[in-house]
TrEMBL record:
Key words, A-Z: Hydrolase
PANTHER family documented for this protein: EXOPOLYPHOSPHATASE
Organism: Shewanella maritima
Lineage per the UniProt record: Bacteria, Pseudomonadati, Pseudomonadota, Gammaproteobacteria, Alteromonadales
Domain Ppx/GppA phosphatase C-terminal: 309-481
Protein name stated in the entry: Exopolyphosphatase
Length: 493
């Protein structure tokens, strides 16, 4: 890493966990270098008089000392520390802040509930594509933020006094998980959600998101106990609640996907989530990619929103792996020209961006090994952090790149439903044809091709004479017929 690199460090001092994120800016995109989480549980040590115990102060300061070792030697570093609910309400927070400044000499910004909510939404908006009507819930250790937004802009912010650590102390402190305890916890959460303004209710949401650790933990727990889960739905929340009550105690839980330190908080977090679903009539929720720390990081780096987060991600990856942009652009131009001829008949109009991204990144693996660069490209995209892409979109992009040349690994083409597989198959067909038409890497070669599509047939025709030097291309196309046939695509030349 160059000594001239600008580094950005965000520390989120939450009521349950402290988070450290270190990044640098790479072509307008923040490249995460290191992430670390410590479960300090400040809220657990906040007494009824809102005083933070000496043990909590000691644990928090020690955590900050250790965090500082991760970035103290980095050049050109900008650092921001943000504290949330527990330090907002602690009457002796200045004692903690004074001790913390001795360990880590940077200001600590104790943010309001509304500012916390704004930063959460900002972190999500920089990490994934949002819709016209979004609602976000972030269940923290001491408070729960509920945010409404339209695309990249937060429109309504709320911070409620319910959190997984505080509710665990209040309702599940002995570790016992009973039906009555759940009833009281859900009732208390419902009372909090009922205080939200009218704009939060009776809405048809385009996207419902849950950010941070509680949503991730609930999602993982559902995957552990439900066969073929379809995400965080009200039905699955009730199934998880029934499982917890049946076990009766946190020591009896068998949830291998959860960290041991997260297990004691799962019942409290679940009760709050159920209250949210019931009061706001939510049907399904997705786990968000970003959170508070990402919001702090992007503001620290002064990276503004861009209209297309996905394109920013693709451009950054292309530059990072030194792809041949001229060749990628040529393949993209060919693919989109073919796409325009058949996108309506093949019902692909909404996937222009996916095909374009696959073209731009189809040779991303060449920097590792040219012989099997499609396989390396798939590995990179399968394992990279791709802001703007959800899990299914990332999987499809990786498979398109991994299957754009040579034999197709049919065993890898496992999709959630037949429609998704059909869309992938059709996009892959167009991509592979575009790559074949540009194997010579000649900017002067321009094949005039006419496509005509039906349900499972694709007619391919040159609209002008091609010379004898193009016979190799015809051989490639005939070979392609055989490779596409097992996918259910009948290529007519």
């Amino acid at each position: 890493m160059s000594d001239t690199s600008q580094h950005f460090v965000a520390i989120d001092m939450g009521s349950n966990s402290f988070h450290l994120v270190i990044a640098r800016e790479q072509d307008g995109l923040l490249q995460i270098l290191h992430k670390e989480k410590r479960q300090v549980q400040l809220a657990k040590f906040l007494d009824s008089q809102s005083l933070l115990a000496e043990e909590a102060i000691k644990n928090g300061v020690q955590c900050l000392k250790e965090f500082s070792q991760r970035f103290s030697e980095l050049a050109k570093t900008r650092v921001k520390l943000v504290a949330t609910h527990t330090l907002r309400v602690a009457k002796n927070r200045q004692v903690f802040i004074k001790a913390a400044r001795k360990a880590l000499d940077y200001p600590i910004d104790v943010v309001s509930g509304h500012e916390e909510a704004r930063l959460i939404y900002n972190g999500i908006a920089h990490s994934q594509v949002l819709q016209s009507r979004n609602i976000v819930i972030d269940i923290g250790g001491g408070s729960t933020e509920v945010i409404l937004g339209s695309e990249q802009k937060a429109t309504h912010l709320a911070s409620l006094k319910c959190g997984c650590v505080s509710y665990n102390k209040r309702f599940f402190t002995t570790g016992a998980i009973t039906k009555e305890a759940f009833k009281q916890a859900v009732k208390a959460a419902d009372k909090q959600f009922s205080n939200l303004g009218p704009v939060y209710f009776n809405q048809d949401w385009s996207l419902v998101l849950g950010s941070s650790g509680t949503a991730k933990a609930i999602s993982s727990a559902i995957n552990d106990i439900v066969d073929n889960p379809d995400g965080i739905t009200y039905h699955n929340l009730k199934a998880l609640k029934a499982y917890l009550i049946e076990c009766g105690h946190i020591n009896a839980l068998n949830l291998p996907s959860l960290d041991d330190k997260r297990l004691p908080l799962i019942a409290a977090g679940l009760a709050i989530m159920i209250g949210f679903f019931r009061r706001l009539n939510i049907q399904q929720l997705q786990v968000a990619k970003g959170a508070l720390r990402e919001g702090v990081l992007y503001e620290l780096a002064r990276i503004e929103h861009q209209d297309d987060i996905r394109q920013r991600t693709i451009t950054s990856l292309s530059q990072l792996y030194h792809t041949d942009t001229a060749q990628a652009r040529q393949v993209q131009d060919t693919a989109l020209a073919l796409f325009e001829q058949i996108c309506v008949k093949w019902q692909l109009s909404d996937y222009h961006w996916m095909l374009s991204g696959a073209c731009q990144l189809h040779e991303i693996g060449i920097s590792i090994n040219s012989k099997s660069h499609h396989k390396h490209g798939r590995y990179i995209l399968d394992n990279a952090d791709l802001p703007g892409f959800n899990q299914q979109q990332q999987q499809m992009l990786a498979l398109l790149v991994g299957c754009h040349r040579k034999k197709i690994d049919y065993s890898a083409l496992i999709f959630g439903d037949n429609q998704q597989r059909l869309i992938f198959t059709r996009l892959l067909t167009i991509l592979r044809l575009a790559v074949l038409l540009n194997l010579g890497r000649s900017p002067d070669k321009d094949y005039a091709v006419k496509l005509n599509a039906s349900a499972n047939e694709l007619s391919f025709k040159f609209t002008k004479e091609h010379n004898k030097q193009d016979q190799l291309l015809m051989q490639d196309l005939m070979s392609e017929q055989q490779k596409l046939a097992p996918l259910g695509v009948h290529l007519l030349l």
